[in-house]
Write a structure and sequence with these properties.
mainly alpha; Arc Repressor Mutant, subunit A; 71% helix
């Protein structure tokens, strides 16, 4: 194995573990009882606006029947509304309700507060390293 390749594999393993642990810890700071999939779908609807079930499923990279169940739960909780598609009666448009927006806002606030507290305990060099790493991590997440 090449030195660069071994180094890359070691970094990949370290990043995988630390990102998974941070993600798990951030989920613990959520104020809602929604699953990660439900939260992600709700947040996508908030960011992207009203979508069909198929569009949400494609965006979230899940099968349409799974997304149908997710949206049904969110609708039951009053977090989304379903309405008829204006041009295709076979489809449904889903959008976030004010209650859904409030839940997302509260979740984000709690997690941001927790993370801000953690960052305050770091050195200036550590904060600078994270500032440089954030766009790289975002690029990796989007790939």
């Amino acid at each position: 194995m090449e030195t660069g390749t071994a180094r890359d594999a070691e970094l990949a393993s370290a990043l995988r573990l630390s990102v998974m642990r941070l993600s798990r810890r951030m989920r613990q700071e959520r104020s809602s009882q929604l699953t990660p999939t439900q939260t992600s779908a709700l947040a996508s609807l908030e960011r992207r606006g009203p979508m069909t079930l198929g569009e949400i499923a494609a965006h979230e990279r899940v099968q349409p029947p799974s997304m149908t169940r997710v949206i049904a739960h969110l609708a039951l909780e009053g977090l989304v509304e379903r309405r008829s598609h204006p041009t295709d009666g076979r489809q449904v448009i889903v959008e976030v309700t004010d209650r859904g927006r409030a839940l997302l806002s509260d979740d984000r606030r709690r997690r941001d507060e927790w993370l801000t507290d953690q960052l305050a305990a770091l050195t200036a060099d550590e904060v600078a390293a994270l500032t440089r790493a954030a766009p790289v991590l975002e690029a990796l997440a989007g790939s």
